[in-house]
Specification:
The protein is of the alpha+beta class. Helix content is 34%, strand content 36%. Residues 70-97 form a coiled coil.
Length: 396
């Protein structure tokens, strides 16, 4: 009986213990499930991180490929632009050749040339000469007979550069353009201010929106005319006071080879004389001879062009004076500069080679030589020195 009572007393305790054990087993299973879920989630997060890193690496490679492709496209675009400009020039030359051969064929078809037609052609040629003389205001009755003396005004800047005054203005300002590629013009109040030491730091700085190329720029009537860097043959007209581009033009046929063999940095050389603005360049079609072009500075348009017999080989610079081209030659090692070819566009002098005009008392080359028609002097840049040459002239 006692044993039965003990049995009935133990049953609730055993049931309680078994229930607690069952709860413990359920909690352990839940914890195990939660742990597995966390492990699975960690694996998924780790895989997501790896995928993200791989995507970032792939995106970097894709970005590099796109940037490289865009750079090639930019290069191809520049080359294509140059080829199109070259093609347009060649088409223009071909059109002139076609017109010429057409006229020759037409003339050959006519066995007998009427005297009236011949007289008409002669009259047209005479009218063309008159028109050119009127256009050039042929009041120049003098020619260069010698270079008398030189004065080294200052030595500032590197090997390449140019300096000048504005012959179209009454002021005495001096302008310095240092380097063959730059975008800052230095303006001095006068020649004395330019000659003073340390005045370069006090000069008025005129920044350009696009840089120049070469040393063939000029300043005329308050405007800077220069060959735009990076372009084949674009000439920019820049207003110095308003500091803005006033106009632009393309010079047909120019920019493919240097204007002068000894100054390869200059593809287009601009010049001034008593008649205004000119452009000088060389073309492969002329065998490297210099082509001379008269430019209207107001309309920024070509008025007339001449193929000259003056070669660009061993040439270092050139300048215009009184409708006449003067080409300066030297040796590649740098010797005595001399004017070896002279070409008068009006035919008064025709073309003369080796006229015996030497630059005095100086050895070395010139980066630029510009004629100032107002002062009848040459403003030259030679090995970092700014030089003035005085000229001797005589009647034609």
């Amino acid at each position: 009986m006692v044993a039965l009572q003990v049995y009935f007393l133990l049953i609730p305790s055993l049931m309680s213990i078994m229930g607690a054990a069952q709860y413990v087993m359920q909690d352990a299973a839940l914890l195990s499930y939660i742990d597995q879920r966390f492990l699975s989630l960690e694996k998924r997060v780790e895989k997501c991180s790896r995928d993200l890193l791989e995507y970032m690496d792939e995106f970097r490679e894709f970005s590099k490929a796109v940037l490289s492709h865009l750079a090639r496209l930019s290069t191809d675009k520049a080359e294509l632009k140059g080829e199109v400009e070259n093609l347009l020039m060649r088409v223009e030359h071909a059109q002139r050749d076609i017109d010429y051969f057409g006229s020759v064929m037409d003339s050959n078809a006519c066995v007998e040339v009427h005297e009236d037609l011949l007289k008409q052609q002669l009259l047209e040629e005479a009218e063309e000469k008159k028109r050119l003389k009127l256009m050039l205001n042929a009041s120049c009755d003098h020619m260069l007979a010698g270079i008398r003396s030189l004065k080294v005004v200052k030595k500032t800047g590197g090997k390449h550069g140019s300096w000048m005054k504005d012959p179209g203005k009454k002021h005495a300002k001096v302008y310095l353009l240092s380097g063959s590629v730059n975008n800052v013009v230095l303006e001095f109040a006068n020649i004395m201010a330019f000659m003073e030491n340390n005045q370069t730091l006090k000069a008025r700085r005129v920044p350009l929106p696009v840089p120049w190329e070469g040393t063939g720029h000029v300043i005329y009537q308050g405007f800077l005319f220069y060959h735009r860097h990076g372009s084949l043959n674009e000439i920019v007209k820049f207003h110095l006071q308003r500091r803005g581009i006033a106009d632009q033009m393309l010079l047909p046929g120019a920019g493919r080879i240097p204007a002068y063999e000894l100054s390869p940095q200059t593809k287009i050389d601009l010049a001034l004389d008593e008649q205004g603005l000119w452009a000088l360049h060389a073309e492969p079609e002329t065998g490297g001879n210099i082509v001379l072009t008269k430019i209207n500075p107001v309309a920024m348009a070509v008025e007339h062009s001449w193929d000259t017999p003056c070669s660009s080989r061993d040439a270092e610079a050139a300048f215009m004076a009184c409708n006449t081209l003067h080409v300066v030659y030297n040796s590649p090692s740098g010797g005595s500069s001399r004017i070896q070819c002279v070409y008068d566009v009006l035919g008064a002098l025709n073309a003369r080679t080796n006229p015996g005009l030497h630059f005095p008392k100086r050895q070395g080359g010139h980066s630029s030589v510009h004629y100032n028609p107002k002062e009848k002097q040459l403003f030259a840049w030679g090995d970092g020195s700014q030089i003035i040459y005085k000229l001797h002239t005589e009647q034609k």
